[in-house]
Design a protein that fits this description.
Chain A: Keywords: Glutathione biosynthesis. The complex is a heterodimer of chains A (about 260) and B (about 625). In chain A, about 35% of the residues lie in helices and about 25% in strands. Chain A has about 260 residues and is α/β, with parallel strands linked by helices. Chain A has a single domain, classed as TIM Barrel. In chain A, strands 2-1-9-8-3-4-5-6-7 form a nine-stranded mixed β-sheet, with helices on both faces. The model of chain A has no long low-confidence stretch (mean pLDDT about 90). Chain B is globular and about 60 Å long. In chain B, α2 (about 20-35) packs across α13 (about 390-400), α11 (about 350-355) packs across α12 (about 360-370) and α14 crosses α19 (about 530-540). Chain B has 24 helices and 17 strands. The longest helix of chain B has 21 residues, at about 430-450. The chains are: A alpha/beta (about 260), B alpha+beta (about 625). Chains A and B meet through β7 and β9 of A and α14, α19, α20 and α24 of B.
């Protein structure tokens, strides 16, 4: 409840900057992404309230809460061609708007780059998968590939049959499927075979598809709010296995009842 | 174990006369390499492991296990493939010191993407298999750090006898025939080290005192004045250089990154030595140490009595504290400079020459320090060199400074960059364990670079750790100096103030505490994050394919368990096997029968015929495979 003074009457965007330069987070390693994200938001809020500034009102009319950080410096330290920038988008609802908003925020406000290597989408888990909703999001993602803003597309935590359907249907085929780390030793052989046949990268993650649960939001902000979307960006140096930058952007809004 | 030059070795007298020549030109050669390659940048991560093996011959009828002196014969066949297809060969094989040893490395280095971690173990397995195919009945290729009955009577196949009064080794225990005969370098080193020292090398390992252990251990002390009655006495280079190690080399992206990795891995050397401990038995006795390190150190200790401080300096220039096989004496990165707290000896003219040629203080003192060692192996064909083109004199001294870490400049006219070698680990019995250690260390280098971690502690404390690391059961019982706050720039303000000044004594900063291997590797809630949690955190931010991640998780779980003491180190396992063997008489003696049963058991574990959860844990299998999937081949 750091944020009593932060009145959230409208949509608010957060950008944590490069959390690898936050030693308090490095010192608490191997927590899951939700814990990491919560710590990152708290840290960002702490810096924000300490520096107390109002200049975050953006041209688009919403508030952006961020902290002074080294993301762009880190990116500029290397040749663009030596870096691999990847994004994972966590969506809580369907529609194109949240995806677009998330990607624009990450690319323009946080990273300040023209393109990224890949975008992986994670939809807040519905059971069973809602293929129509996925297709709608996918269409919007394909558009970014068409405009050369994104190199490859991927999707996380999807049932195998849904993934095959998506693959058959999509104009830009998924190059990546992300599965939970807990299941990486027991991947169904049929999925393994499908990925091998289609040259699809079968990657792991340790994210909950509900990356920031309502309960955590309420704990952080002291009031119930909605998560509209979240993204995580990571920047690696190619062929050296060095991760230089990692951080989150997210958007919250007052509960729509 | 170093540069293999073809040619005719010089006698010790000739070699000794040329020592100043080698030093002068060796330093010049380094200067020339440095000038050409100091700006080299943009190299990707490439890395490789080196595993040494002992060829063991079992006689199941007599229940005996010997070392088989067939390395030369086997290597001749193993090397044929490389000669025919040098670019596509899967494994490279090299001779090692002993006539029963071979060394294998992957044919090509591994690359910088994480998917490479999934092919390491298969490469190790196939490598071993390739050598196994050339064996005779009853033989086995075993990755044993030390052969337990090395130097006992009849420990070789075919049988040999030591010759204390003639030949090269002149050992009471170690016959000349057990030195690799296929290259003159090895016997030449034996002879020259002994001659330079002026007497036999002498290693006294405290015996493990069981209820019926006899003191004096044997009659060595009656024959040799250097032998201590309550120790296992070893008197030959073969006892050390006849041990096997697990080594790793990484390519850095430029010289500065190489310095950082060299420095940051230095405090981890004793930790990984204790963790990998695998050699509690020497010359048929259980000793009170778990590691090979001091044995090798003593086995090539060419220092004269003057240099060892036993006589006033007359012929020699320095009293030198360490053997040429020992832990490093100085850090190389600017960050490390303030932790260089032990005297670093060098010839002023070498240091000055290096400095005059634009080499900074830290690197100049490191190189000059390497050159306090005289050459102990010189070939007539290589005396006169072009210092702008040749590097043999530099390599001569560099490759006979066998230290925990090695800083390696790029070979001239090659595509290879600045490299760092990590040398403390003892080799493990199974490929699973060796792959786990190798992947763990390489992952750690990536974590260090990604989070810009800082493990530096004063070098004197690293040295103290090196000695404690070798004690019996050190992995579980010893505590080691380790840096408490490893996140680089935020240390408490007092520490910053204290350590910023040149007058700082880093020990006083309270940055360093005592930790167990378990605390260092697994972390200690609230106090220290732990190396494995840091690796997991790093992996969460990387693209890792499912199979590779599964494999890495198996490796990390194994390392976690061994560090926590839940499963045995190889050394503890061997100790337990011996002391619980029905034929063991509680006298610290490892008999022919116990040796046979021990090695048979280790062989069965290695081949997977026998599961051994107390050594490996319950899930010592991985998803390792031969090659990287197509989808990941063009990945980052």
């Amino acid at each position: 409840m750091i944020t009593n003074q932060l009145a959230i009457n409208d949509k608010v965007m957060f950008s944590t900057g490069n959390i690898m330069s936050i030693n308090d987070i490095t010192k608490k390693p191997s927590q899951n992404s939700t814990e990491e994200l919560i710590d990152a938001i708290k840290y960002t809020l702490k810096e924000y309230t300490k520096n107390g500034s109002d200049k975050e009102q953006t041209a688009d009319g919403y508030k952006l809460i961020s902290r002074a950080d080294d993301v762009q410096v880190k990116i500029q330290e290397n040749e663009v061609g030596d870096l691999k920038i990847g994004i994972k988008v966590f969506l809580t609802k369907g529609g194109n708007q949240p995806l677009k908003e998330a990607l624009e925020t990450a690319l323009q406000k946080q990273l300040n780059v023209k393109n990224v290597a890949d975008v992986i989408v994670s939809l807040k888990r519905n059971s069973p998968d809602n293929l129509d909703e996925i297709k709608e999001t996918w269409r919007a993602m394909e558009d970014y590939v068409g405009r050369h803003v994104v190199g490859e597309l991927g999707i996380a935590d999807i049932e195998e049959s849904t993934f095959r359907n998506l693959y058959e249907w999509a104009a830009v085929k998924p190059s990546i499927i992300q599965i939970n780390l807990a299941t990486c030793c027991v991947v169904p052989p049929t999925l393994q075979a499908f990925c091998k046949e289609k040259d699809i990268k079968l990657f792991t993650h340790s994210d909950s598809s509900d990356i920031l649960p309502d309960q955590s939001i309420e704990e952080i902000f002291g009031t119930p709010l909605d998560l509209e979307w979240a993204i995580r960006f990571t920047v690696h140096i190619k062929c050296r296995g060095v991760l230089t930058t990692k951080g989150y952007c997210l958007c919250i809004s007052p509960k729509q009842d | 174990m170093g540069l293999l030059t073809e040619g005719t070795p010089l006698s010790w007298e000739e070699t000794k006369k040329l020592a100043p020549h080698v030093r002068e030109h060796g330093v010049n050669q380094f200067i020339s390499i440095y000038k050409k390659l100091k700006e080299r940048k943009g190299d990707v991560l490439k890395w490789g492991d080196e595993i040494e093996y002992i060829i063991v011959k079992f006689n199941d009828g007599k229940k005996e296990a010997k070392v088989s002196l067939r390395a030369e014969e086997i290597l001749a066949v193993l090397n044929e493939k490389e000669q025919q297809n040098p670019d596509t060969v899967k494994f490279l094989w090299r001779p090692e010191f002993a006539a029963y040893m071979i060394e294998g490395t992957p044919g090509k280095p591994y690359g910088g993407t994480l998917a490479h971690f999934n092919i390491v173990e298969t490469n190790m397995r196939m490598r071993r298999q390739e050598a196994m195919e050339l064996l005779k009945e009853g033989e086995s290729v075993m990755s044993l750090t030390s052969f337990p009955r090395l130097g006992c009577s009849d420990f070789t196949e075919p049988p040999t006898k030591p010759t204390p009064n003639e030949g090269g080794t002149k050992s009471l225990f170690f016959p000349d025939e057990a030195v690799f005969p296929g290259h003159p370098r090895f016997m030449n080193l034996v002879r020259n080290i002994r001659k330079r020292r002026g007497e036999h090398v002498a290693i006294n390992l405290p015996i493990f005192r069981d209820v019926k252990t006899k003191i004096p251990v044997d009659e060595s002390h009656l024959i040799r004045k250097a032998a201590k009655p309550d120790c296992v006495y070893l008197d030959a280079m073969g006892f050390g250089m006849g041990c096997c190690c697990l080594q790793l080399t990484f390519q850095a992206c430029h010289i500065d990154e190489a310095r950082i990795l060299y420095d940051q891995l230095t405090p981890l050397c004793p930790i990984m030595l204790a963790f990998s401990a695998a050699s509690p038995i020497h010359r048929g006795f259980l000793t009170d140490v778990d590691c090979r390190w001091n044995v090798i150190s003593g086995s090539v200790d060419c220092r004269t009595e003057e240099e060892r401080g036993l006589k006033p300096l007359k012929e020699n220039k320095f009293v030198i504290k360490k053997s040429r096989y020992d832990s490093i004496d100085s850090y190389l990165s600017p960050q490390g400079e303030k932790y260089n707290d032990i005297p670093i000896l060098y010839n002023d003219e070498d240091y000055k020459k290096l400095r005059d040629n634009g080499i900074d203080h830290l690197l100049a003192q490191h190189i000059a320090h390497l050159f306090i060692r005289d050459t102990v192996s010189l070939f007539s064909e290589k005396i006169n060199q072009n210092d702008e083109e040749d590097t043999d004199h530099f390599e001569n001294i560099q490759s006979t400074n066998w230290q925990t870490m090695r800083f390696k400049p790029p070979p001239p006219h090659s595509t290879i960059g600045w490299r760092v070698e990590f040398r403390p680990c003892e080799v493990q019995v199974t490929d699973f364990e060796n792959a786990a250690i190798v992947c763990f260390v390489v992952l750690l280098t990536r974590v260090i670079l990604s989070y810009q971690l800082n493990f530096l502690i004063p070098i004197s404390q690293v040295d103290e750790n090196m000695q404690n690391a070798q004690k019996r059961n050190a992995c579980k019982e010893q505590r080691f100096w380790f840096r408490k706050d490893i996140t680089t720039d935020i240390s408490p303000p007092e520490a910053n103030r204290c350590c910023a000044g040149t007058s700082c004594d880093p020990k006083a900063c309270d940055m360093v505490g005592l930790m167990t291997v378990n605390e260092i590797i697994n972390g200690n809630a609230g106090d220290f994050p732990g190396l494995i949690p840091l690796i997991n955190s790093y992996l969460n931010g990387m693209d890792v394919d499912a199979d590779t991640h599964c494999t890495i998780q198996q490796y990390l779980k194994f390392i976690q368990r061994r560090a926590s003491g839940e499963i045995f180190t190889t050394a503890s396992f061997i100790r337990k096997f011996v002391t619980e063997h029905p034929a063991y008489k509680h006298d610290s003696v490892v008999s022919e029968l116990i040796n046979y049963d021990l090695l048979k058991t280790l062989q069965d574990i290695e081949e997977g015929k026998k599961s051994c959860p107390e050594l490996l844990g319950y899930s010592a299998t991985s998803k390792t495979r031969e090659s990287i999937p197509n989808a990941l081949k063009n990945d980052y």
